[in-house]
Amino acid sequence: LNDVPIGVNIKTAQISTFDFAETLSVCTSENHSAAKKFFPKLFEILSEIAETKIIVINSLKELKIEETSNIKYYDNSYDKVINVINKKISKYFENESTENIIVVFLGYNLLQRKLEKLKEDDDEIVTIEDLIYNAKSINNFKFILYDKEEALSRLGDGKIDSLFKRSRGLWIGKGFDGQQTFDVINQYTDAV
Fold first, then answer.
1. Which residues pair with 151 in a beta bridge?
2. Helix (H, G, I), strand (E, B) or coil at 83
3. CA 72 to CA 52: how far, in whole Å?
4. Are 150 and 8 contacting, i.e. CB atoms less than 8 angstroms apart?
5. In sequence order, what are the beta bridge partners of 28?
6. What is the pTM of this model?
7. pLDDT of residue 103
8. What is the sign, positive or negative, of the torsion defined by CA atoms of 108, 114, 120, 126?
């Protein structure tokens, strides 16, 4: 997961990669149309990694991803799906599971707010941040959060602060030369 191809560097014509091996990776864009083209290919690549299951939880109506044998797709009953994933995390602590899982949240901000609101009335509700925090020490669980740039502004203000590097992520662009990895400390790396 530390060298997943994301496109071609337009300056060198070499394959550009991104490190999804961290517990939490962030992808963002100016609009969802670019992400609609990018994510199906990314999920295809990630699902080909040996014994990796992709779970996509999508709160964005504009982004529809097709379910395949390695990609489980959910666009409703978010709280129930997240609770099931949280129970699966418990099985890792009990050494009952070794499956590699990548959970992708499309529309992080809207979904996190919905779950926080539900949690006000029901303490059993698990939010996205709760889920990531619960799995932080399990190497088999990885999370990818996606939303528009302005919607990610509140990320890093909660219990997952230590897992989130605001200076590192993936900007999803529009065309052939549209993707960029961002690392504020170093300069932008142009890539597709």
1. none
2. helix
3. 12
4. no
5. 147, 171
6. 0.83
7. 94
8. negative
pLDDT digits (tens, 9 = 90+) for 94-145: 887 778 889 999 988 889 889 989 999 998 899 988 898 889 888 888 999 9
- The residue with tokens 């300056």 is 11
For 24-135, where are the alpha helices, taking DSSP H only? 32-47, 78-93, 108-121, 128-135
Measured distance CA(186)–CA(184) in Å, rounded: 5
Q: What is the mean pLDDT of the chain?
A: 78
Please report where in the chains the tokens 């961002």 appear, as a residue.
182
Per residue in 6-64, pLDDT (tens digit) is 877 777 878 888 888 888 888 888 778 888 888 888 888 888 876 788 899 998 877 77
The terminus-to-terminus CA distance of the chain in angstroms comes to 18
